Amino acid sequence: MSEKVASNVSVTEKTDSSTSYFLLVGSKQPKTVKRKIQRCIYDIRKSMVERSIKATAHSIDEVGNYIKNVYGFVEINKNSDEFQTEYKNIRASFMMMYAPELLGTLAPYPELEGEDTKDMKNFMEQIELRRKATENIPLELFDIDLHIFEKEEADFQMRFIMEYKYDYIGASTSGGSKFMVKKFRKIYRSIYRYYGVTQEDIDKKTRRYEKVIKCLTIR
């Protein structure tokens, strides 16, 4: 696949469905004045967050207790169909990310060979084969420790998905007004600030550090 095309392929892992793929063919769009201003504002905010960040880290299970005790989220039943669907999809995603060797000949991530419909169809078929292969891997070889927390207010639902083995925090919302979305973003930043970083994270600019800084910077 050419460098030009490769730079315009994005892959987004979703927890409520199979992986989504978006192919944007062509050269990158030039940055507009508005985008340059937005980037400048983001850089300023990021710099302020980095200067204010302190070494006050908490474990992922402490974060789970935090959102229950402070914000009133409720953990959904692990025996429910809803949880089992999320678990199945997230386990598949994590296996492909952290232990692809378990997939044998399907371990290498497939490449998009070209730009036409046939190439795209073949690419997605290979991805689906990998996903199905994860279902045949025994739990003794690969498992995850998934927890899902929800909170509903009027027509607005907030959800946090946490995986305790790999320190993953994800979130989603549905319904609600702009005010409620703004409220959720505030809660999201609060949770990531509580999750925090260690001094080692700060010194080495680790993946955890980058995740926390990004979350606290975005508005």
Report on this structure.
This protein has 219 residues and is of the alpha+beta class. Helices cover 48% and strands 15% of the residues. It has 8 helices and 6 strands. The two termini are 35 Å apart. 12% of the residues are buried.
Which structural class should the secondary elements be placed in?
alpha+beta
Helix content: 40-55%
The whole-number mean of residue pLDDT values reads 84
| Strand ordering within the main sheet | 3-4-5-6
Helix segment tally: 8
Number of strands: 6
What profile does the largest beta sheet have?
4 strands, antiparallel
- Overall, the morphology is globular
Query: Could you list the spans in which at least 5 consecutive residues all have pLDDT below 50?
Result: 1-27
The amount of beta strand, in percent, is 15-25%
Secondary-structure blueprint of this entry?
Layout: H1 3-6, E1 9-12, E2 20-23, H2 33-52, H3 60-69, E3 74-75, H4 81-98, H5 117-134, E4 146-153, E5 156-163, E6 168-174, H6 178-195, H7 199-204, H8 207-217
Antiparallel strand pairs: 1-2, 3-4, 4-5, 5-6
Helix pairs in contact: 2-8, 4-5
